[in-house]
Amino acid sequence: MNAEFVNPFLSSFINVLQTMAMLEIKPGRPSLKKDAIARGDVSGLIGMAGPTLAGSFSISFDEELALNVFEMMVGERVESIGDDITDMVGEITNMVAGGAKRQLGEKGYEFNMATPIVVTGPGHTITHQVDGSKVLMPFQSEKGNAYIEICFND
Amino acid sequence: MNAEFVNPFLSSFINVLQTMAMLEIKPGRPSLKKDAIARGDVSGLIGMAGPTLAGSFSISFDEELALNVFEMMVGERVESIGDDITDMVGEITNMVAGGAKRQLGEKGYEFNMATPIVVTGPGHTITHQVDGSKVLMPFQSEKGNAYIEICFND
Fold this sequence. Notes:
- The structure is a homodimer.
- Chain A is built from three helices and seven strands.
- Chain A is of the alpha+beta class.
- The first copy, chain A, has one domain (3-152): 3-Layer(aba) Sandwich (Chemotaxis protein chec), CATH 3.40.1550.
- In chain A, strands 1, 2, 3, 4, 5, 6 and 7 form a seven-stranded antiparallel beta sheet that branches.
- The radius of gyration of chain A is 15 Å and the shape is globular.
- Chain A binds chain B through residues 43-51, 54-56, 58, 86-87, 90-91, 94, 111-130, 151-153, and chain B through 43-51, 54-56, 58, 86-87, 90-91, 94, 111-130, 151-153.
- Strand 5 (117-128) of chain A pairs antiparallel with strand 5 of chain B.
């Protein structure tokens, strides 16, 4: 999997948080290792499937970041991860994948998006099961941290 | 969402466990409630996407069932959820969705499958984010319990 596939997801995530929450989040050092695992307290996942292309995408937020982004987007503070937060994480995941899909479509990579799934549970781990390569990208901000993971069966 | 959509996933799950692990698992009472939540210790998730159809599917195993199915399939006992178990859960999820896809394709419902994702973490919860309906189906066996959740944006 080359950067052409990965960059649209990263730029879309940065863009969505900037637009929706006025939050600047910075990508860290990507990992391609098979045994790298994304950990988070709340994660949004979305599948992508086309006639020849299949993959999956996830964003894992730590609780701190999820609660802060909600406050910045909605103007209200919630104290723990509940329906408000899972809805928001599902929506952000959908927006990020939709933005990447548009950019990849322009380059001739066509796929449809599944509906998002949100997982909660302190310190859960996510493993994308794919024969192709996986990219795990940590993100840091003043308001908390996130991981993005992108996989395609290339 | 009607039974025509749901039944292929249920029968495929029963069939896969019977074939792969010689385990009989029994469906319980389905729930259509919006606030019903699947809880498990290890879950396999897979997205489904077609030109007009999008959805998601998950199987959540309690730890007991996951470890027992592994032992029945492989003939070796592992004592906790690790790579062996996540690989198996991803594979079972893929097989169940593949079986359902075949049955639904024969009825004219066409979609492609994304690659599976496996989530681990004690008692994590799964929320499918979809405007359409969701079906949550508990399963029980002598070797442990599981939940299946199926959603389509119908």
